[in-house]
Specification:
Helices cover 31% and strands 30% of the residues. By secondary structure, it is an alpha+beta fold. The protein has a single domain (5-156), classed as 3-Layer(aba) Sandwich (Aminopeptidase), CATH 3.40.630.30. The model has no long low-confidence stretch (mean pLDDT 92). One of its GO terms (cellular component) is ribosome. Residues 8-152 form the N-acetyltransferase domain. Keywords: Ribonucleoprotein, Ribosomal protein.
Length: 157
């Protein structure tokens, strides 16, 4: 029985992907990023936004990371509501970790809403640790938990 992950293809996000990305963004977040924000990510020399496509070529998720010197950061990740629970988010995060490691990162960081138990659980399962709190970080006053993934010497060998 297939877990569906073999049917997922991850590749660099392109401008023509933005209508589907924005549709997911709109349902995933109370204050979604704009088209201009995604265009800025696509144009940034440090960002490498990725898109996940199913076997039918439908965009089912995306992630917006950056890598600057030896530090990676995940700014935004979302999966289409119809596709949640299929480990697509995990696949995207693990891909970013691999790309950051290949690029020489020692650490990858992110912020996650305190109320987002599913994401926090996913990140912990992958190996992120909670390292701090940003009070009232989000537009609704919700706190953000700071998380980081550190590559140890064995990871970098």
């Amino acid at each position: 029985m297939s877990d569906g992950l073999h049917d997922i293809t991850i590749c660099p996000m392109q401008e023509q992907d933005l209508p589907e990305v924005l549709a997911i963004e709109k349902v995933a977040y109370p204050r979604p990023w704009s088209r201009t924000h995604f265009l800025d990510e696509l144009a940034s020399p440090h960002a490498f936004p990725l898109a996940a496509f199913d076997h039918d070529g439908r965009l089912v998720g995306y992630i917006c990371p950056m890598l600057l010197l030896d530090e990676g950061h995940i700014y935004n990740v979302a999966v289409h509501p119809d596709c949640r629970g299929r480990r697509i988010g995990e696949l995207l995060v693990r891909r970013v970790l691999g790309d950051c490691q290949l690029g020489g990162a020692e650490i990858v960081t992110l912020e996650v809403r305190t109320s987002n138990a599913a994401a926090r659980s996913l990140y912990r399962r992958i190996g992120f640790t909670e390292t701090g709190l940003r009070n009232r970080y989000y537009e609704n006053g919700e706190d953000a938990i700071l998380m980081e993934y550190r590559f140890d010497n064995e990871d970098r060998a």
